[in-house]
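Action item from last meeting closed. Structure (243 res):
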């Protein structure tokens, strides 16, 4: 059983209170940092009940990273349905959330504000890409099977893929070839957009793996071989960029 070591800090985001879960690694300060955008916690009301996100954050922390995980669904009541939250989600809100989490993480005395990366899975993979397009201080971006990057959310929003030229850092991506969103064709389009923008990137694509292949609480989706290979490669990438 994983022992989680975090503090919860509440920040104001345009009048809405957002919980940010802060994970602090052991060892000598300062530490590089990661803002981790959560996936869609199906059946859960908050990060405290989201085993996958907590375990992922703790694993990054155990590898020497200070981690901030913002609860990006704070704009709605926790009792509201996830379908409602998905339907009403807006990119401008997500950007505000990521900026608030980034600023909070960088304000910690134990964090090296010049060495912070952005990571996200599923819904959070899209949020991570979007955030990197709007926060030019990120030094690394890791996207795990982020779908709908070719689609803007909210009236007047630009699809994140069209903002690729704004990404300030190298990108690593992890995708299952059995996934439908993003499909392998979508992943090719992501790569093309990054190449055209001159953004260094390296994508890992896994045969036999579908969407959310790292999500171990969902046995029907979890693909251990792909998941562990992705873990090794994302830690190597982040170490190279942030340490």
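Sequence:
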């Amino acid at each position: 059983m994983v022992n989680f070591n975090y503090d919860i800090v509440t920040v104001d985001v345009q009048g809405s209170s957002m919980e940010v879960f802060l994970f602090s690694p052991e060892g000598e300060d300062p530490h590089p940092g990661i803002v981790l955008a959560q996936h869609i916690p199906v059946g859960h009301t908050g990060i405290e009940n989201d085993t996958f996100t907590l375990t992922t954050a703790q694993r990054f922390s155990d590898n020497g990273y200070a981690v901030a995980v913002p609860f990006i669904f704070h704009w709605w009541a926790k009792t509201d349905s996830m379908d409602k939250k998905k339907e009403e989600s807006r990119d401008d809100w997500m950007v505000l959330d990521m900026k608030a989490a980034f600023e909070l993480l960088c304000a910690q005395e134990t964090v090296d504000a010049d060495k912070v990366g952005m990571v996200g899975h599923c819904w959070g993979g899209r949020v991570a890409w979007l955030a990197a397009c709007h926060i030019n201080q990120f030094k690394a971006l890791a996207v795990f099977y982020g779908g709908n990057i070719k689609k803007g959310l909210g009236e007047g929003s630009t699809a994140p893929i069209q903002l690729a030229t704004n990404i300030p850092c190298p990108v690593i991506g992890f995708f299952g070839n059995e996934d439908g969103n993003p499909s392998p064709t979508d992943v090719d389009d992501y790569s093309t957009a990054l190449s055209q923008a001159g953004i260094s990137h390296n994508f890992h694509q896994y045969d036999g793996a579908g969407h959310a292949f790292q999500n171990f609480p969902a046995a029907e989706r979890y693909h251990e071989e792909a998941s562990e290979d992705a873990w090794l490669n994302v830690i190597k990438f982040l170490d190279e960029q942030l340490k």
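Note appended to the action item: The longest strand covers residues 111-121.
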